[in-house]
Structures are given as structure tokens and as C-alpha cells.
């Protein structure tokens, strides 16, 4: 499990670094209003990708790991259902493009959404390859594909500089499509040596298409919760908050706020197939132990990053984008913690899904659909970008708490004494970092990165010194 987690985290770190390199180029070469348009396009794509990707990927990973049905039959029927979902979202983007322009108060978005429609089929097929490798627990191959894709996305930079000088948004979309096509080609090639593993999972028992559809939609529907909180807020800001430059500032805050979720998604990738395998073998105690280990690892390595970014939000935005982005500092303070809470929510629900049906996650999704969007609109209208970011934190913390309580009631408590101590340590870290960054103003990204590394090292050293995490235990985690 740890090896798979390291692979997945490494892939997500590359995704994060290449993504910020891309946004550094975009944010520093465009006016804030134009950058807001790019953020809007990416936000809608992220929303659709979240629905399109996670349903098929997680469903495949779970079913292949549990070894209940013929693997080839599972893959064929999942692809068939995925094509139905692809057709739906393609139609939404291509034929519904004028509606996006009206709702988001920008007629120029019409053409860009038609172009974006062609990214949907490529992404839908790419995640099928990821789901197959996750289910076979070939996390190294999944990580390789997940590493190639964000690196290939950097083709956006030369495309904008040399091919699409007059329309950088189209250059962005062309680069994304090229990256997906290259990643799909490599994924298909890497499946060839794995034919023996596929042959070992052959069976006469076939899965029903209705079951595939139900599982895929259940996972997808749950990830609507994630999509709403991680994506809809940017669209609400674009539609409601004036002036238009505020959408650009908020996009900058969102980009750094999502770091915690990107890293937590590595845990989600690993925990579902690992826990599902133990549940399928009837080893429920071992499954629960793995879940507790994952929580401790997340609190040791990911939560401190979210806390430090939250406490230094103004300095980070000023160093990366420019001093005018300090206006989004409060928004990033809330968003960094909000995204960690959402990552924990997803991880807890994946453990729940491994043991039980997805009904709880479905209900959580329905409740969020009814409540979150109106709350975001009101928060943005009356309190601006800081208000909507705070609403995001309150929403994700509530979802995380409800998921934890449900898991403790149905399966067992993932929170150990060590976990609670790590939460207290993170709270102290935030207070110390907030005081420190309120006294110093750093606007050099390399100096700030050095401060982050030192602060992180001191914090982990303190955990070892106070025996919250024993040195032997830290070595095992690493």
C-alpha cells in the first residue's frame, strides 16, 4: 500500500508543479480579466472531468480488486456505459455553449465551450486506462500515466506563444487535447505486457450492465459534491462578483487552494482498491487498520502543507502573481483548509463504499446539491470572494464531519489518539505560522519556498521530538 501511495503522491506532485508552472505563465502573461476567462473554462472542464472520470475509474478499481466477475466483461461494459456519459457531456458543451455565455455573462465563452467539447471523449477514455491499472494494483503504471499527462499539458505554452498568439484560450484547449491523446497512446501500449494479469482474472461469472451503470453513476454522483465545492464557486464569482478582475484574483487563490485536494486524491486512488481487496477476502480488521494508517499519513504529511499555505496566503499570492493578488489572501486562507477537508471527505466515503453500498454517499450528494449552490451565491453576492471561500470551508468541514460520524457508526472509528494529537499540532502550527507571516512580507517565490521547507521540517521534527509520531513509525510511513 505504501509503495502505491508513494507512486500516486509522486504523480500528483508532478501534476501540481506542472500545473502551477502553466498558471504562472498564464497569470503573468494575461490581464486579470482574461485570466478569469481561462479559469472559467478550466473550472467547467474540471467539473465535468470530476463526474466523468471518478465514476468509471473508481467503479473499475473496486470491481477488479474484489475479483467477483470476469475482468474483460467488467471493462467492456464500463467502457460502453462511459461512452453514454461522454455523449451526454459532449452535447452539453457543444450544443449548450450559448447558454454558458448567457449564464456566465460573457458571450465570448460560446466558441470556447464548443472547442472544449472535444476534450470530453479523450478524458473519458483516458480514465478507463487508469481504472484498469488501479484495479490490478499497478499503481506504478497509473502514476506514470498521471505524470505524463500534466507534463504533456505544458505544450500549451509553446502553442500559445507560437501558434495561437491571438487566441490563447484555444491554445490552452489544444494543448490539453494533445496531452490526453499522447497519454492514451502510452496507456494502451503499457497494457500489452499486462495481458497475463488480465487472463488470470477471467471467469465465467459476468457482471450485469445495470450493476455497472449503478456503480458508475453512484461514484459519479458522489463526486458531484466534490465538483460543486471545488468548481462552482469560481463560476459563481464570475457570474456575481464585480469587477470582472475579481474572477482572476479568485482563480489564483483556487489554484493554490487545490494543492491539498490534489495530494489527498493520491490517497483516494490507493485506498479504494486496497481496502476493497481486504473486504473481498473477509479481512475486515486489516481493512480498518489500513484506513487508520491512511488518516495518520494524511495528517502528518498533507495537513501541514494546507495549514502553512493557509497562514501565508497573502505572501504566496503576491510572490507568485504580483502584489495586486493580495486581495484574494483571505479567500486562499479558507480554500486551502477547505480542500483538505474535501479530500478527507472523499477518502472516508471511499472506505465506506468498500464496506457498504453507496446509498450514504448518494444522500450526501443530494443534500449538497440542494444546499451548497444557494449558499455560495448568497455568500458571493453579499461578502465577495472571501465570503464564498468561507462558505466553502464551512461546507466541506460539515461534509467531512458527517462522513466521519457515519463511518464511526457503521464500521469503526478511523480517528486514533495519535490522529487527534496531530490535529492539535496542526492547529498550533497555523497559529505560529500566522503570527510569523503577519510580521514578515515575502514577495520572492524562491525565498518563500525555502521558508516553507524549513517550517515543514521543523514541524515534522517537533512531532518526532514530542513522540507524537515515533521516528521508527515515521520511517515506516516513508
From TrEMBL:
<dbReference type="InterPro" id="IPR050833">
    <property type="entry name" value="Poly_Biosynth_Transport"/>
</dbReference>
<keyword id="KW-0812">Transmembrane</keyword>
<feature type="transmembrane region" description="Helical">
    <location>
        <begin position="388"/>
        <end position="407"/>
    </location>
</feature>
<dbReference type="GO" id="GO:0015297">
    <property type="term" value="F:antiporter activity"/>
</dbReference>
<feature type="transmembrane region" description="Helical">
    <location>
        <begin position="331"/>
        <end position="351"/>
    </location>
</feature>
<keyword id="KW-0472">Membrane</keyword>
<protein>
    <submittedName>
        <fullName>Polysaccharide biosynthesis protein</fullName>
    </submittedName>
</protein>
<keyword id="KW-1133">Transmembrane helix</keyword>
<feature type="transmembrane region" description="Helical">
    <location>
        <begin position="363"/>
        <end position="382"/>
    </location>
</feature>
<feature type="transmembrane region" description="Helical">
    <location>
        <begin position="5"/>
        <end position="26"/>
    </location>
</feature>
<feature type="transmembrane region" description="Helical">
    <location>
        <begin position="83"/>
        <end position="105"/>
    </location>
</feature>
<feature type="transmembrane region" description="Helical">
    <location>
        <begin position="215"/>
        <end position="239"/>
    </location>
</feature>
<feature type="transmembrane region" description="Helical">
    <location>
        <begin position="32"/>
        <end position="52"/>
    </location>
</feature>
<feature type="transmembrane region" description="Helical">
    <location>
        <begin position="176"/>
        <end position="194"/>
    </location>
</feature>
<feature type="transmembrane region" description="Helical">
    <location>
        <begin position="139"/>
        <end position="164"/>
    </location>
</feature>
<dbReference type="GO" id="GO:0042910">
    <property type="term" value="F:xenobiotic transmembrane transporter activity"/>
</dbReference>
<feature type="transmembrane region" description="Helical">
    <location>
        <begin position="259"/>
        <end position="279"/>
    </location>
</feature>
<keyword id="KW-1003">Cell membrane</keyword>
<feature type="transmembrane region" description="Helical">
    <location>
        <begin position="111"/>
        <end position="132"/>
    </location>
</feature>
<feature type="transmembrane region" description="Helical">
    <location>
        <begin position="446"/>
        <end position="469"/>
    </location>
</feature>
<feature type="transmembrane region" description="Helical">
    <location>
        <begin position="419"/>
        <end position="440"/>
    </location>
</feature>
<dbReference type="Pfam" id="PF01554">
    <property type="entry name" value="MatE"/>
</dbReference>
<feature type="transmembrane region" description="Helical">
    <location>
        <begin position="291"/>
        <end position="311"/>
    </location>
</feature>
<dbReference type="GO" id="GO:0005886">
    <property type="term" value="C:plasma membrane"/>
</dbReference>
<dbReference type="InterPro" id="IPR002528">
    <property type="entry name" value="MATE_fam"/>
</dbReference>
